[in-house]
Amino acid sequence: MSSKSKKLGLGAVTLMMFTTIFGFANGPVAFAQMGYAAIIWYLLGGLLFFLPTAMMYAEFGASYTDAKGGIYTWMEEALGQKVAFIATFVGLASWITWMIGVAQKVWIPFSTLFAGHDATQSWSLFGMSSGETVGVLAALFVIVVAFFVNRGVSAIARISSIGGVFVMALNGILLLASVVILLASGGHFAEPVQLHSFLISSNPAFQSPFQMISFALYAIFAYAGLEQMGSVMENIDEPEKTYPKGAIIATIVIGIGYSLSILLWGVSTNWLHLSAMKSANLGNITYVLMNNLGVQLGQSLHLSQATALLLGDLFTRFAGIGMFMAYVGSFFYLTYGPIKSFILGTPKEFWPARVVRLNKHGIPATAVWAQAIIVVVLILGISFGGKNASQLYLILTNMGNVSTTLPYVFLVLAFPFFKRLPNVKRPFVFFKSAKSYWPVTILVELLMLLSIGLTIWEPFSTGDWFDGMWTILGPVLFAIIAWILFARAEKHEKTND
């Protein structure tokens, strides 16, 4: 077999982009937050964020094919060691925030498997509230996973791929069930399709121009993760032609996929009825909508009420088992994967000796335990903050959106300076001149900074200091830790000199 035949073609590249980026749960969250008005922001997110940054990451990845430090290496020469280290370390806050959220959300599909619905809001241990109970269980989950990961038990991470198959199947269920409901109802949508509903959200929290722009952060978050594709550029057949075509096709397919998902949820669910459900929140919204989809499908087929409810129960449990496996598998890998890659890809002088030391299983045990302690402390701090489930998962969602998007601000900022570096191998070039990459860089930066700023400002503007402080805590805390570690390394280097 020739080496060329082993290269990734247009179809493979496009499929990799789709599976890396597209998340089924993003559709329910978008519909719950803004209804049909979320569609335009997801389309703009694809056009103004996903497509241009995809080309930037491709140029970075093609030039630094042997880089072990990932985005740290991409930024190091362009912005300097200090900024690159702090920015990448802040990026770890996104994984920490993800772990905080998933450690609590994993109990929702777990309870769904047995109860057929989200039963976590009725859980109570030792007189604690449901939020506090889930927080304690989440903290125990983090500790147990860290314990097994440090002993080399990471094979369970593979079940995330099985969960991924289940989650992908949910897209097919949504499409087929919605078509049947639509045909049976004579084309009637539970959420009326009107022009103004695509422009103005029914949610009062997203009606002013600033509030709507802040929602762009949800759309950016839905397209995050493509920097992982930068490392496969050398494996793509004719990358200078294949990758841009793949990125354009993926932008169209993912944009249409998200838009169709949001629209289809309106076939079976009325937004006002959904917003009135006190049990629905951003943590369990996928299961709530899947349950309703099953019930509405049963009713459209003129099944008995008991059978329709059973169908809703089956849809919910199917979503539960898929999300549960995906969550657990991903959690095992992300407990050690990102932090190990970052530590091994940055100069050892930045870290205390114990942090960079690997145990016999090849795991940086000290770093994993330090990470686990931070996650546990933050989980308990949020859980015992006196918030109900809806407020809790809104805080976690905003924390995740801000923490995940912030590193991209530095990465995109580094791109124009990377383009000016001499003696850099550039096997793939999409932006041919400064006139092409500077306007794109400024546009993407403004979109990210504005949406991040408005997301952070929103709770403070309403006097909700608790939500506001938790939203920015992760990035600020990790920036301070990174600055201390870098200053320590500089001081150590001067002493040696």
Describe the structure.
By secondary structure, the protein is mostly helical. It contains 19 helices and no strands. The protein has helices at 10-21, 26-34, 38-63, 71-79, 81-105, 107-115, 130-149, 159-184, 209-214, 216-222, 239-268, 271-275, 285-300, 305-345, 353-356, 365-383, 389-419, 434-461, 465-496. The longest helix is centred in the middle third of the chain and has 41 residues, at 305-345.
Secondary-structure blueprint of this entry?
Elements: H1 10-21, H2 26-34, H3 38-63, H4 71-79, H5 81-105, H6 107-115, H7 130-149, H8 159-184, H9 209-214, H10 216-222, H11 239-268, H12 271-275, H13 285-300, H14 305-345, H15 353-356, H16 365-383, H17 389-419, H18 434-461, H19 465-496
Query: Could you give a short account of the major beta sheet?
Result: none
Number of strands: 0
**What structural category arises from helix and sheet content?**
mainly alpha
What does the radius of gyration come to?
Answer: 23 Å
Mean pLDDT: 83
The shape, in one word, is: globular
In helices, the fraction of residues equals over 70%
Order of helices and strands: HHHHHHHHHHHHHHHHHHH
How many helical elements? 19
Strand content: under 5%
Distance between the termini: 54 Å
Residue windows where pLDDT falls under 50 for at least 5 positions:
1-5
